[in-house]
Amino acid sequence: MRAIITAVGHYVPENKLTNADLEKMVDTNDEWIVTRTGIRERRILDKDKGTSYMAVCAAEKALNQRGMSADELDLIIVATVTPDMMFPTTAALVQEALAANNCWGYDLSGGCTGFVCALSTASQFIESGRHKKVMVIGADKMSAITNYQDRNTCILFGDAAGAVILEATDDPDLGVKDFILRVDGFGKKYLYMKAGGSLKPATHQTVENEEHYLYQDGKPVFKQAINGMATTSATLLERNNLSSHDLRLLVPHQANLRIIDAVGKKLKLNPEQVAINIDRYGNTTAATIPLALSEYYQQGDLKIGDWILFTAFGAGFTWGSLLMRWALNGSASD
Ligand code: UT7
Fold first, then answer.
1. Rounded to an integer, what distance in angstroms lies between the CA atom of residue 296 and that of residue 332?
2. Spatial contact of 299 and 333, defined as CB atoms under 8 Å apart
3. For residue 73, how far is its CA from the centre of ligand 1 (angstroms)?
4. According to the CATH classification, is domain 175-325 in 3.40.1640.10?
């Protein structure tokens, strides 16, 4: 039994935060942001909505595309670092909103690698024969944990969600083929939220110290990201007897255009083999990969049998890659 993607949808909020807007908020400029990151604008969700809102919108699009009732789902996995609340899970909120009445679900906190982690675990539920239909969502409202007075981070992040439906197939030539995932707590000090967890619960002081925002020391993350994504991707290709020519599309986590370009170069890929939309959305953490995949599918750029490689790097550190063969023809309208 193999796991194939049978539908993919995404949601981005309408409200745009441009580089020109940020120039008015912190000491930065469009030229610095574009040359150092490749980002031109990001989407920002309304203050009174949480991550589950975007997750539900993306999931509904995937269900509609497939013509599937939410009742048919066995499992919902939501990859996120910005759950609506500490508990219950965002998956529970999504289940209720979709009226998916025959499933279980959980959240997966894997930082920017969260969607790849969720896809790998979902595929194994299907390969085992235990489940037939799994909704895998990557969704983050990064604006909720971004300090818009910190120019090091506020230029980077945005809000979005992407969702795929994974189903079982007997066709041995399609679907999730292989993956490599890694975690190393060595990276914990470079990208994290200093307070609000059980180690340092929220107090007036932690709020005053602005410790409930995302903190990042970008340089070490940058270096490790290129190495982690390129190495796991190259190993996956090699051990599956594929060359860079065989790959239709690399869908990398969108954190920095310079990282994406460096990974593409290391893998000897042409520009048209690399999915890029960071210019329009910035870093949406767990949502970047399904969002980019959904856009490429909508454009009609993918066909049955195409080799696709997902790769990501994020807080933890967590990183890894997943190789699959595309199982859908044509395109989908939004
Ligand atoms: O998604 C999870 C994984 N995250 C990543 O993969 C992100 C990895 N890191 C990065 O993408 C990059 O490190 C950043 C984009 C975050 C930063 O780029 P950088 O080239 O590493 O710049 P830097 O932090 O070394 O800063 C260079 C200079 C500094 O000035 P000095 O100290 O050289 O005088 C910064 O203060 O640029 C300054 N700077 C800015 N200038 C204008 C930092 N942020 C800004 C800004 N506008 N927004």
1. 10
2. no
3. 42
4. no
Q: How many angstroms separate the alpha carbon of residue 218 from the centre of ligand 1?
A: 6
Domain segments of the chain: what residues?
2-169, 175-325
CA angle 180, 92, 165 (to 5 degrees): 50
Integer-rounded Cα radius of gyration of the chain: 19
Query: Looking at 19, 256, 277, 283, which residue is catalytic?
Result: 283
103 is catalytic: no
Residue 283 bears catalytic tag: yes
d(CA 300, CA 43): 24
List ligand 1's pocket residues with C-beta within 6 A. Answer: 28, 32, 36-37, 112, 151-152, 155, 218-219, 221-222, 225, 255-256, 259, 283, 313-314
194 CA distance to ligand 1 middle (Å): 20
**CA quadruple 175, 304, 12, 83: dihedral, nearest 10:** 0
The model's pLDDT over 177-226, given as tens digits with 9 standing for 90+, comes to 999 999 999 999 999 999 999 999 999 999 999 999 999 999 999 999 99
User: Whole-prediction pTM value?
Assistant: 0.97
Nearest protein Cα to ligand 1, atom 11? 256
Give the homologous superfamily in CATH for domain 2-169: Thiolase/Chalcone synthase (3.40.47.10)
Q: What is the pLDDT of residues 22-64, one digit of tens each?
A: 999 999 999 999 999 999 999 999 999 999 999 999 999 999 9
Peptide bond into 88 cis (omega under 30): yes
CA distance 315 to 35: 24
Instruction: Give the Å distance between the CA of 33 and the centre of ligand 1.
Output: 9
Q: Which candidate in 57, 103, 112, 154 is catalytic?
A: 112
pLDDT digits (tens, 9 = 90+) for 250-281: 999 999 999 999 999 999 999 999 999 999 99
Q: Which residue has the tokens 């942001």?
A: 33
Among candidate residues 117, 131, 253, 277, the one labeled active-site is: 253
Is 270 one of the catalytic residues? no
